[in-house]
Design a protein that fits this description.
502 residues, alpha+beta, six-stranded antiparallel sheet, 39% helix, elongated
Length: 502
């Protein structure tokens, strides 16, 4: 809570009356912007906190402070156990001096540029190292200590320390003497303006409490303003995170709706397979397409064929696509249902944050967001369900090592595009069952797709049981030695219609 020059001067005078003769017991920082002073008086300890938060200085006097901090660092050890001789304000400045026998501390209370300087013989050291580019020397501090307040009201009006609030109060004051007296000796009011808490000689907003001294008013004012600041900061961060989540969710919903529409608009693959089987006499091996009469629409329809497949195999190819299309549609709808529920929850959370008036109103949401910030465990592979078997495809070179050497079991089948960089592919073995040859071909096609042979029509794929691969010391990530291998010539297989990718 930044204070203007009038209140900094009054605070210095009040602290001088309260602390003159006390000794400094400890001084330590808990982070780069917070320093704590413990003064020892006859009647007990007195605590001072000097803290910068949100570009504002909070100088206040809590009843207790935590002496043990993880980041604790002792500061200004030369003043420890030294008595305070005097605390002197600098008229017209937001600063004051704490005088010891051989040294002096200067408190610069300039908002986000606030700092504390130790002047010891010819040495100057500061608490905040980022603010020490232009430190005032002892002569400059002496001039500040010898300064005087303006003597004419016109000088007060033009003084650089007069802010808008002081200017308004000065204008409404009956005399300069009355204006000075109300800030130097009058009661101090703690006020809620609606956007912040402040203290002033006049009431501008909701009056919370009044105090006879500034020292009594400043601690509750700082604590309220700090609580308000952290509430606003948490609210802003929480709102930003919810909006980011909402944007991502809505973007994904839009993409899935587009995918679903595209699937619906695609040809009925089962019907195309039926048309091929019902027109076998006019389809031959090597044909790239065939035009037949569609018995449903009674219109001619052109069907694309794989020229290296027989008519029957082309029909089976379309039946497989029909099955995978159904799986993909179900997956998309399931994900859409989950995302729409998430969108509804995020919209509710957004409204709850907008309506929040205290940290208590957001405590549950803050806990939820904290849980969501914990990163989910990343899998080193894409997972496919094909013909009732689990097929795993490594994502990156390091992931290939983890998949092949740590995750795969010795009897699992391992596949890789031959003599070319690419993903390791593993087919999980089922106890007592032989892996179907067709599944090996599909998994081998995936190995080609996730390699630099993706664009080739046919390419070699090696496969073996996992127990026949090993890694030599010093080999780069993803590189293994295959001690026993089989080779197939296959075409790349796109993963688009092979079920769920994780």
């Amino acid at each position: 809570m930044d204070l203007h020059a009038l209140y900094i001067a009054r605070l210095a005078q009040e602290l001088n009356e309260h602390l003159c003769g006390a000794s400094i017991d400890e001084v330590f920082s808990s982070d780069k912007n917070t320093i704590h002073f413990i003064a020892q008086k006859a009647e007990g300890e007195f605590f001072i906190n000097f803290r910068i938060e949100g570009n504002k200085l909070y100088l206040y006097f809590p009843e207790q402070i935590q002496r043990i901090h993880r980041g604790r660092m002792d500061q200004f050890k030369s003043i420890w156990k030294q008595p305070i001789l005097a605390i002197q304000p600098h008229p017209g400045e937001r600063s004051f001096t704490v005088q010891f026998e051989q040294t002096k501390l200067v408190f610069l209370c300039h908002g986000r540029h606030a700092n504390i300087l130790l002047y010891e013989e010819d040495q100057i050291s500061s608490f905040r190292k980022t603010q020490q580019k232009k430190l005032p020397d002892l002569m400059a501090i002496g001039r500040l200590e010898q300064a005087a307040w303006p003597s004419k009201i016109s000088d007060w009006e033009e003084a650089p320390f007069i802010n808008a609030l002081l200017a308004k109060n000065l204008e409404q004051s009956t005399s300069l003497e009355a204006f000075e007296d109300v800030y130097q000796n009058g009661p101090v009011h703690l006020i809620n303006t609606g956007t912040e808490y402040l203290i002033d000689a006049q009431i501008h907003g909701e009056l919370i409490a009044s105090y006879p001294t500034l020292r009594e008013a400043i601690t509750p004012a700082c604590e309220l303003q700090l609580a308000h600041y952290f509430f606003q900061r948490n609210k802003q961060v929480l709102s930003k995170e919810i909006q980011a989540g909402l944007h991502q969710t809505q973007k994904r919903i839009k993409a899935l709706v587009k995918q679903k529409k595209a699937l619906v608009e695609q040809s009925n693959y089962r019907h195309l397979g039926d048309l091929i089987l019902s027109n076998l006499p006019q389809i031959h091996l090597g044909d790239k397409s065939v035009t037949v009469q569609d018995y449903l629409s009674n219109q001619p329809i052109s069907i694309l064929l794989k020229e290296k497949l027989s008519p029957q195999d082309n029909a089976q190819r379309y039946y497989r696509k029909a099955k995978n299309q159904h799986i993909e549609e179900a997956r998309i709808q399931s994900e859409l249902d989950q995302l729409e529920m998430k969108e509804y929850e995020l919209l509710e959370q957004e409204e709850q944050v907008n309506q929040a008036r205290s940290m208590k109103d957001m405590r549950g949401l803050l806990k939820e967001q904290k849980k969501e910030r914990i990163p989910l465990q990343r899998l080193p592979y894409h997972a496919f369900e094909i013909m009732g078997y689990q097929v795993l495809v490594g994502k990156q070179a390091k992931d290939n090592d983890e998949l092949s050497l740590k995750i795969a079991k010795k009897d699992d089948l391992w596949l890789h595009a031959r003599d070319i960089p690419g993903s390791h592919v593993v087919i999980r073995k089922k106890s007592g069952q032989a892996i179907p040859e067709k599944l090996i071909e599909i998994a081998g096609g995936l190995a080609l797709w996730f390699s630099k042979r993706r664009k080739e029509s046919l390419a070699p794929v090696i496969y073996t049981e996992k127990k026949h691969i090993r890694k030599r010391k010093g080999d780069p990530a993803g590189a293994v030695v295959v001690e026993k291998e089989n080779v197939l010539m296959l075409a790349p297989v796109s993963p688009d219609y092979l079920g769920n990718m994780s």
